[in-house]
Design goal:
The chain has a ten-stranded mixed β-sheet, sandwiched between helices. A five-stranded parallel β-sheet has the order 13-12-14-11-15. It starts with a strand and ends with a strand. The protein folds into two domains: 198 residues, DHBP synthase; 91 residues, 3-Layer(aba) Sandwich (Rossmann fold). The protein contains ten helices and 15 strands. It has 321 residues and is of the alpha/beta class. 29% of the residues lie in helices and 18% in strands. InterPro entries: DHBP_synth_RibB-like_a/b_dom, Sua5-like_dom, Sua5/YwlC_C, Sua5_C, T(6)A37_SUA5, TC-AMP_synthase_SUA5. Keywords: ATP-binding, Cytoplasm, Nucleotide-binding, Nucleotidyltransferase, Transferase, tRNA processing.
């Protein structure tokens, strides 16, 4: 049975013993293991049933010297670190391959690094003195957890310490940015920190092309609830589906559709930050309800919504009558 606790010392003890520990971040809860403990890292892969070629993100404390693990940090990347760390931005660098276990990189010569903006995890990292890998604390490909209880529900039969830091304030995973080139960058996974926000900090041009780097969250299907999730490009199509479908339906939309009960409806917010905060929380709530089907209205196809749209498109399927 999982143990939910607020005691950092218990989490540190388990991490030092080579046992994965669930930790809070501002994005989602992570299943953590020290970067220098291969046994613990393998245990994380096994618990999640995660493919071994799927790289992990290294989590560091504020102001740690990255050159212990990273070959070079472009000037623009340093500017982004100063602006957004701690926070939901992951940077991919060329790594010092003798300092980073290839399990972490998926056999690549690059490593993804971020500095989580949660005071409990920052304290944990400082006390531990070692970076942590921390993919989302749920079975691979399923909905990420944003509360300690979500983690417990994901691993009901595991002996797992869960460090309870409350509900995650961001609610979706970090933006991942390729910072392996000195003169340009590329967003590899969209989050709430978008290209417009980045351009307010740096003048470095961004690329929009095929990129062969493997990073988390890039598979065609991901973040999936247990129940079928249909997405719709507009409210009218979603409303017609609800009107003509005999199933019990959980709806996330800009208005309450006909036939959908109040307790099975969540109003889709008009700001990306609010929708990100609620998205996984509502999908998990729908999964534990007595409905058969989940429906969601897609937010606008604009840059600021791209991170949320990407997750919905990977989590669900488009409805075709």
């Amino acid at each position: 049975m999982p143990l939910i606790t607020t005691h950092i010392d218990r989490a540190i003890h388990d991490l030092q013993e080579g046992k994965p520990v669930a930790i809070p971040t501002e994005t989602v809860y992570g299943l953590a293991a020290p970067v220098n403990n291969e046994k613990a890292i393998r245990a994380v892969f096994a618990m999640k049933n995660r493919p071994l070629n799927h790289p992990l993100i290294v989590h560091v404390a504020k102001n740690w010297d990255l050159t212990q693990w990273v070959k070079d940090i472009p000037e623009y990347a340093q500017q982004l670190i100063e602006k957004f760390w701690p926070g939901p931005l992951t940077l991919v660098f060329h790594c010092k391959v003798d300092q980073i276990n290839p399990l972490i990189t998926g056999g690549q010569t690059t490593v993804a690094v971020r500095c989580p903006a949660h005071p409990l995890t920052q304290e944990l990292l400082m006390k531990l003195g070692t970076p942590l890998v921390a993919p989302s604390a749920n079975p691979f490909g399923k909905v990420s957890p944003t509360t300690a209880q979500h983690v417990s529900e994901s691993f009901p039969d595991q002996e797992l310490t869960i460090l309870d830091g409350g509900r995650c304030t961001v609610g979706i995973e970090s933006t991942i940015l390729d910072a392996t080139h000195a003169k340009n960058y590329q967003i590899l996974r969209h989050g709430l920190i978008d290209e417009k926000t980045i351009a307010e900090v740096i003048t470095t041009p961004s690329l929009h092309q095929e990129n062969t780097l493997r990073v988390p969250g890039k598979l065609e299907s991901h973040y999936q609830p247990q129940k079928t999730l249909y997405y719709f490009s507009d409210y009218e199509a979603l409303s017609n589906f609800c009107r003509n479908n005999p199933d019990k339906i959980y709806a996330i939309a800009s208005k309450q559709p006909p036939g959908v009960l109040e307790e099975h409806f969540h109003l889709l917010g008009n700001k990306p930050e609010q929708v990100a905060f609620d998205l996984y929380y509502q999908l998990r709530k729908a999964d534990t309800s007595d409905v058969q089907t989940i429906v969601i209205e897609l937010p606008p196809a604009t840059e600021s919504w791209q991170g949320i749209r990407e997750r919905i498109l990977k989590a669900g399927i488009t409805y075709s009558s």
